[in-house]
Backbone:
């Protein structure tokens, strides 16, 4: 998928294998599907992202989860829901 403006989505619908919904999305649904900023920010501003992640809480109060990248020191701090979806994807192990 790709992130497009409404006008771009209207033009791209049906092109390049893309299917873009025509109806407006309610802001509440959009916000629910966005990445958890609490977990992301905790790791982003920390000297040791993995340690900061393990002591941080997601927006809904759950423990953030560190997902490591195989063979690398890099990783991502995600909410439990995001970690469940990301585990095994993009080389991540959560």
Residues:
């Amino acid at each position: 998928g790709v992130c497009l403006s409404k006008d771009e989505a209207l033009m791209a619908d049906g092109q390049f294998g893309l299917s873009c919904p025509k109806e407006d999305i309610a802001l509440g649904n959009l916000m629910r599907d966005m990445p958890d900023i609490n977990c992301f920010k905790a790791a982003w501003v920390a000297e040791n992202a993995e340690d900061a992640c393990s002591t941080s809480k997601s927006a809904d109060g759950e423990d953030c989860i560190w997902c490591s990248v195989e063979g690398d020191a890099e990783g991502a701090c995600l909410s439990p829901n995001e970690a469940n979806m990301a585990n095994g994807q993009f080389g991540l192990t959560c």
Q: What stands out?
A: The two ends are 23 Å apart (CA to CA). The beta strands are 65-69, 75-78, 92-93. Residues 43 and 49 are 4 Å apart (CA to CA).
